Request: fold
Amino acid sequence: MSQFRPNCTILAIESSCDETSAAIYAPERRLLVQETYTQIALHAQYGGVVPELAARSHLEKLYSVVEHALSRAELTLDRVDAIAYTRGPGLVGPLLIGASYADALSYARQLPLLPVHHLEAHITIPLHAFSDLDFPFIALLVSGGHTELIYARDLGQYELLGSTLDDAAGEAFDKCGKMLGIDYPAGPQLAANADAYTGKTLPVLPTPLKHRKTLDFSFSGLKTAFSRLLDSQRVHFSDDAFACAVQKTIVDALVTRLALACDQITDVPIVVAGGVAANSALRRAVDDLATRLGRRCYFPDIAYCTDNAAMIAHNAYLRWQRFGVPLRPDHMVQPRWPIS
Ligand code: KG4
Ligand code: ZN
Reply:
């Protein structure tokens, strides 16, 4: 079957970085289950993702991750109508493992193959949970590899409003966390330490691109400033105070740009997506901004913030429904692939 049916079942694979994930999506049966194997422990000793090790680990785990996803859904492959996979952007080796697996499965079972853009999937997953959300919207996409403000006019129609000039927001969390002795990826633990801080005073960090009315971001200077501040002020403040200061600076930088984007594009809702969308200080600050501006804002369920195959399956469904089965691409993967 290569015609879309609303009651179809999609099996999706995500392997763009360090999570091996498989999901089954069958919205008419209210089914969205996923199984994810995280490689965090593998890469923690190196302080970041080692692409070659990531690819090998995907190869080792993918088969059992898919089996577990199917058994959670209480399905066999006979009930699957299409195979989706992450085509890019991401690390070439890891992407190739997922793409080859999906390609082989689609060939063996004679099922349509649906390639998915990872960043598009991040920003469209909130459409699954929120029936009142629709295009157009402004998306703030914040992850370990990307920090982008996107005007999402419609499915497949995106305008990049701004992006980071250097490090991504998640990278800033990870690198500053590492300076505080937190293991990779330091973002979630740094955030927990920051939220636990109840003191009144904070070490002062410079605001990135403070006087520039730009929709772009920059976080590499913050990293250097943070390192200097730690050297000079560690006797005066606790590590939690430093965590709180850096979290506040990153969140302020993100929300200031989001507010500028809202000045330019009026009357549309806000979506925040990607790993850093799990950050509660960011959620609170965006909520406050949305209330002030009288806009609605939407965040994915925490399980769908960091990399996951559920968002790939969901995006593949939307695209199959709207555009049909795409022609087989010349390149199975596209490691560099801007959203617009
Ligand atoms: O979307 P994602 O899983 O991977 C990429 O596509 O990059 O995002 C991972 C990033 C990491 O940098 C991680 O530290 C960060 O998201 N992250 C957080 C939180 N949870 C994950 N950063 C701050 N606060 C969090 N709660
Ligand atoms: Zn991602």
User: Anything to note?
Assistant: The pocket of KG4 (ligand 1) is lined by residues 17, 143-145, 170, 173-174, 185, 187-188, 191, 274-276, 278-279, 306-307 (CB under 6 Å). The mean pLDDT is 97. The domain at 135-299 is CATH 3.30.420.40 (Nucleotidyltransferase; domain 5).
